[in-house]
Every structure is written in C-alpha cells, then in structure tokens.
Amino acid sequence: MARTSGSHSEITGPRLRAAAQALFARHGYAAVSMRRIAAEVGVQAGALYNYIPDKQGLLFELMKSHLDELLAAWEALPKGTGARDALEAFTRFHVRFHLDRPDAVFIAYMELRNLEPANFRAIEALRRRYETVLEDILRQGAAEGAFDVADSKHAAFAVIAMLTGVTTWYRDEGRLSRAEVEDLYWSMVRKAVSA
After folding, report:
1. What's the CA dihedral at 25, 26, 28, 32 to 10 degrees?
2. What are the residue boundaries of the HTH tetR-type domain, all occurrences included (predicted)?
C-alpha cells in the first residue's frame, strides 16, 4: 500500500513521535508494536522507518528530546541571587515544566529499563547533568548557611523524586491550581532542606 495521501515528513514525523509517546505512556514500551504506532498515525508499519531507525531509536529519541528540552529550558531561566532563590526557581521550574509533559515524564522515568546499554548511558548522562544542577544549588546553600543538608546528592534525588511525583496526581480540573501546587511544593522543599 502506498503512503497515505497527504502524508508529509514535516507532518508525519511529529505525529509519529506524538502517537508513540502517548502509546508508550499508556501501555508501556514493550506492549506497543510498530504496527500499532503506524495504525495510530495512519501509515503502513514499513513507512515508519522513513522517520526512525527502529522502535529502540524512537524510545531513545523521545527520552533524549525531553531531557534536552528540560536542560535548555532550565539554562534559559533567571535564577535570582543566592542558593535560596536558585532552589525556589528550580522547584517552581521543575513542577511547571513537568506538569505540561506527563507522558514524556512517565517515559523518561519508567522506560529506562527498556533502553539498550549505549542508549541508557546517554540518557543517564543527561539525567545526571540535571541532577547535578540541584546538587550544586544544595551545596551552595549549605556553604552559605542557608540549608542544612547532610548529603547533597541524596537530597537532590529525594527532592527531584518528590517534585516529579506531581505528574501522577495533578489534574487541571482538581481543587488546586498550578500556581498553588508550585507554592505547596516550594514550601515542602524549603522545609526539607531547612531553608
């Protein structure tokens, strides 16, 4: 069967990635076939290989683009002065960024186990860069006497896990607004580091 009428690479490629992301988040990487992704997009399974090398490459690309966007967005953000301002900026940024991308977040955290070793190392390096941002803030705050953190690495892991967890329960139609959720999480993070 020929390519679907009206199918164009600048349209089909992004549609393919969006469909794969939604399917992987809903059903899990292992349960989703290339045929299922193709059906969702409206092309034959073989046509997918015009846009991606294989299913593993697609998973890697989704995770890498999420982490690249995360790091770029953080770099572009004003951080204020001092560790306390930076920690508040990080907290609010993390909540805001992740609430807009629950499927990408789910895949980035839950599908690591399905990455081949080289892809895992590349994704882990990007995750480590982001974790280091928070570790550095916590170390700076401890040096300034603003935070009481015994181990900045493990404190960073705990804070990121707490902040990322918001994507599992928050709904726009719920009782809290996004701004209220940011305030709530900033309060919890501040208390966690004794700021």
Report:
1. -110
2. 10-70
Q: Cα–Cα distance between 106 and 162 in angstroms, integer? A: 14
Average pLDDT, the chain: 91
Report how far residue 60's alpha carbon sits from residue 67's, in angstroms, rounded to the nearest whole number: 11
Cβ neighbours of residue 118 closer than 8 Å, sequence gap 6 or more: none
**What is the set of domains in the chain, with CATH numbers?**
9-52 (1.10.10.60), 57-192 (1.10.357.10)
Closest CA to 86 of 77, 95, 96: 77
**Distance, CA of 4 to CA of 14 (rounded, Å):** 15
**pLDDT (average), residues 136-159:** 95
Beta carbons within 10 angstroms of residue 84's beta carbon: 18
Give the integer Cα–Cα distance in Å for 100 and 126.
20
